[in-house]
TrEMBL record, chain A:
UniProt-recorded name of the protein: Wnt ligand secretion mediator
MF GO annotations: Wnt-protein binding
Transmembrane spans: none
Membrane topology: Multi-pass membrane protein
Organism: Chrysemys picta bellii
Intracellular or extracellular location(s): Golgi apparatus membrane
Coiled coil: none
Any GO BP annotation: Wnt protein secretion
Predominant cellular place of this UniProt entry's protein: Golgi
Pfam families: WLS-like_TM, WLS_GOLD
Automatic annotation (TrEMBL), chain B:
Origin organism lineage: Eukaryota, Metazoa, Chordata, Craniata, Vertebrata
Gene Ontology cellular-component terms listed: cell surface; extracellular matrix; extracellular space
Annotated protein name in UniProt: Protein Wnt
Gene3D superfamilies for the chain: 3.30.2460.20
Signal peptide positions on this chain: 1-23
Family of this protein: Belongs to the Wnt family.
Primary localization: secreted
PANTHER family: PROTEIN WNT-5B, WNT RELATED
Protein's organism: Terrapene triunguis
GO biological process: canonical Wnt signaling pathway; cell fate commitment; chondrocyte differentiation; negative regulation of canonical Wnt signaling pathway; neuron differentiation; positive regulation of cell migration; positive regulation of fat cell differentiation
Biological role stated in the UniProt entry: Ligand for members of the frizzled family of seven transmembrane receptors.
Amino acid sequence: MAGAIIENMSTKKLCIVGGILLIFQVIAFLVGGLIAPSPTTAMHYMSIKCVDVRKNHHKTKWLMPWGPNQCERIRDLDEAMSRQIEANDIVFAVHIPLPAKEMSPWFQFILVILQLDIAFKKNNEIKDNAEVTLDVSLAYRDDMFSEWKEMAHAIETRKLKCSFASPKTIEHEGRHYDCDALHFMEIGTVAHKFYLLNIRLPVNERKLINVGIGEIKDVRLVSIHQNGGFTKVWFAMKTFLTPSIFIIMVWYWRRITMMTRAPVLLEKVIFALGISMTFINIPVEWFSIGFDWTWMLLFGDIRQGIFYAMLLSFWIIFCGEHMMDQNERNHLSGYWKQVGPIAVGAFCLFIFDMCERGVQLKNPFYSIWTTDVGTELAMAFIIVAGICLCLYFLFLCFMVFQVFRNISGKQSSLPAMSKARRLHYEGLIFRFKFLMLITLACAAMTIIFFIVSQVTEGHWKWGDFTVQGNSAFFTGIYGMWNLYVFALMFLYAPSHKNYGEDQSNGDLGVSSGEELQLTTTITHVDGPTEVYKLARKEAQE
Amino acid sequence: MTGTRLLLTVALLCSCTQLLADANSWWSLAMNPVQRPEMYIIGAQPVCSQLPGLSPGQRKLCQLYQEHMVYIGEGAKNAIKECQYQFRQRRWNCSTVDNTSVFGRVMKIGSRETAFTYAVSAAGVVNAISRACREGELSTCGCSRTARPKDLPRDWLWGGCGDNVEYGYRFAKEFVDAREREKNYAKGSEEQARTLMNLQNNEAGRRAVYKLADVACKCHGVSGSCSLKTCWLQLADFRKVGDLLKEKYDSAAAMRISRKGKLELVNNRFNSPTQEDLVYIDPSPDYCLRNETTGSLGTQGRLCNKTSEGMDGCELMCCGRGYDQFKSIQVERCHCKFHWCCFVKCKKCTEIVDQYVCK
């Protein structure tokens, strides 16, 4: 009778394996902390106020904020007032990036946030529930001299959420409102070098469009993109991890198919976990450097979702298969109560993501959060997913509790058992406790690093030496879960070693009920061994 | 009458040419419109030598960073506007006197008011330069920790560029402090005390901008979760900077120079000022009466508030000299219809108000 490798391995070897994994873990952190720059950069842009003079001369449609073909600009909107320029003729132009720089596919995505500087005027306050309507268009080009090509055009509304800190008296006129930043745009690939945004705020008094939004002083944008350096380090890591996980996966499956019996559920789940990890690891992002694949962000989300769902299912099934009670499971259908919530939750998040990022493939300015119905819908999906997650954790905690209860029950009766059974149970308990321990350690690490990265500034300086905390968090945690899956497949693969010769001479005259349990729990029986046959016989009697 | 006045001015001018020449300041960039760099021929650098009020060090910086000058001027202009807003109800109301020394001879005195003016104008420069960065007006901005244009594309690609506010801060420090740094006075001298005071107040102004800039963040991980969070500094409304500096003005610390050449508190019981605090070395002159030597303009002819008990009240503002009352017709715009820009349709409402003017 063969157990998993972890049971049959000597403590010394186990320590060596643990040490090697730990070294890789430390390397994963160091790669992020020392080599990679911070994961993302935010760039500010103050939009240039252009006057659209197209009515007079037929120039190009696009207004450039600076450079050789720059638009006719005004310094501030008071100047527009004195020159009697209408609001509809003012175009806020922003060129991404700033002069003398160019964007690159290595930036992976651009996320743009809009901030409005609105001055308080006693007569011209922001009305309640004010909405601003933006007529936005996005263009691109790949060299400084060619024509701009339109990429997207949309008319979008955004809710203004502004507050005014000082009392609303004449005294404080001219102070700015504190307005929440608005989601503006998101594109999933940076295939072009230069981008140009033209934003208009058309006024239509009859339809109440852009009326009662206060006196806008400036339109500012913040663009966020992934840093090229981080992308390179990330890709390198993925490229390194893919074959490592893939090889151990193949090895694991070979081990299983070499056995005479069919693989049990737990073995299949571990294998599936390996597949989903490989699926995340495969560095398809390399293609985003050469191709304009806008769906990369969405694809990345889906891949992560599949992995999380797989990981959660694995935990449940692992607990269930180590329950050490009479129930025969070994089937996914036996876990519908626990896996159901995972499926529902994952499906909800998938629908939500499709509604947000999926639609953004068509219209980069779209966001589900900008409309009331959309917000409610999005909230509904997220709440359902949240409930599912809570439900799942309740089940998981209950199962873990049950396992521990059974373990303590079994432990007291261990000395009275036959050697084969004792070894079997000891193996089960050890396997369970070991996985429990590393899972908890990994989860705790993830949570702690997540909190630290949220709270702190994300980088620490010692003299000339900067450690990028956020990058270390990403590479470290990513490396950690890879190592987790790696270790799982390596240590929980069936072992070739036997417990020893004396198993057959062990006293097997035990009650049928107890023996039956041996057959229900996994990975222990390499084909119909003596114990198995005996147990069957006795059970039939 | 005019003759004697003229004579007096001439005499004054003669005796103080030395002083006056020294009183020139970069603040004058606010008064003389700086031409935009694209208007000059490249290579010719008459701009910097023509600009009045720059010290040699600042002139050098001007030559290196010509495009920055417009924004320094703008920053100074904003700063003066803010100063005048903050001091609109005080006896000294931050009024500008001429185009070269800007605030006149009052700035020769190391008073609280001088401290505030230095701080607010340094803050104005940080603000304006950071803003210009965002507009993409400055070619050296963002990525330039030091001037290294060769590495720039690589830097930008690898790790993005530094923050604009940081750049604004560093440039303002270089430029504004240049004037004080290039002078070398004997340890413990009056002039050294003044230099130290200016440096401290400039720093306090710059830090006020930095301190008030708040960190804004955006979550954008998987499905918009917070697994990825990007933060950036966001400049506060300049009025808030003015408010903060006004508070610092009210709690400014009186200092004197020690023999070691360091500023120390006059009154040891107080806490010593931090880098964010304003300091002064001279008591404020009497701003009530016009005084040619101190440069005080006096409060004669200033509007005051009859009912107020504060500094803007007629009692305090007019320094007990009394006030004249007159009626004036104020035309106000009312029942207005606005657009977010450029369109205002108002009715005119007239109102007769009593106004009071200091004797």
